[in-house]
Amino acid sequence: MKAVQFDAFGPAHEAACCADVPDPGAPADDEVVVEVIAFPINPADLLTIEGKYAARPPLPYTPGAEAVGQISQTGAGVDGLASGDHVMLLSRENWAQKRKVKAAEVLKIQTQPDRLLQYAMLKVNPATAALMLREYVELESGDWLIQDAANSAVGHCVIRLARKAGIRTVNVVRRESLVAPLKASGADVVLVDLDGLSGQVSEATGSGPRLAIDAVAGDTSLRLAECLAEGGVLVNYGMLSGEPCKMMPDWLVFRRLSLTGFWLARTLGQMPRAGIESLYAELAGHVRDGTLAVGIEATYDIADIKGALAHAGQQGREGKILVLPNGQV
């Protein structure tokens, strides 16, 4: 069977390749075999291949934080799962045609044929958006938040989930061309990141947002923090700028602002199984009712993983890059 591997850290489209690897074989009593239907390429995957993520894995390594698949075999001791079930893979190393994992490392999901690829993107971005919206500030209907990278997959999820909850969003982007599409997606206010941002935000929101969601860091963190209401929280979940987060110490002291970080893997690792199941059942429901729909720019065969990775690393994309390791759905 085929899997994506890399044996040295470096630019993703150069370091990773499609390799022939042994078939995983029959499952043990507590395992299942999953035929992978689709997996997305996320920024965390690119950082993993580059050796810039949380911890460097042992090499050679198969990346892949998320995927959707269909069970083809179950172990004799597995209950509640059967061949043919669609599942989301909770563990990593998912960029392969097949996965053999513990039954506890998959989550059965109710899917729809016309939205199957959306479930491949359920684990990371929708969950990141949902948890950042609820874990740091008790936002109520009518409250404001501000976010950068608003055209990203997480950004779109924040907009849609916030709108469903009655929370209003200020969305900061780098290009004027993104304003109209984001407004059409449900964004309340869309601003191009220029000097004078805090004045525009104050004029739009009145008292200012209570929550800022930051994927960029660097000077952008500072500009978002300047926009916050007293006692507001800036949550950073990315480093698109490659620079440290910035915050004025007098804002921490006199305006009671706070700066914290969000990492999905740690948050999920601290949640009980029931909490994880509840979270993803809720998010899967949002996919079914159309609240969540992440844009897809292109799909690739696993044999062209280098092309897929190069595409995923390009600026200005209008959607996610997905790989279909067992052919078109």
TrEMBL record:
Residue stretches in coiled coil: none
Residue ranges constituting the Enoyl reductase (ER) domain according to the UniProt record: 10-323
Gene3D superfamilies: Medium-chain alcohol dehydrogenases, catalytic domain, NAD(P)-binding Rossmann-like Domain
Keyword Lipid metabolism (UniProt): yes
InterPro entries, sorted: ADH-like_C, ADH-like_N, ER, GroES-like_sf, Mito_Enoyl-ACP_Reductase, NAD(P)-bd_dom_sf
MF annotations from Gene Ontology: enoyl-[acyl-carrier-protein] reductase (NADPH) activity
Regions that span the bilayer: none
Entries under CDD domains matching the protein: ETR_like
Keyword vocabulary terms for this entry: Fatty acid biosynthesis, Fatty acid metabolism, Lipid biosynthesis, Lipid metabolism, Mitochondrion, NADP, Oxidoreductase, Transit peptide
Protein name, UniProt field: enoyl-[acyl-carrier-protein] reductase
Species, as recorded: marine metagenome
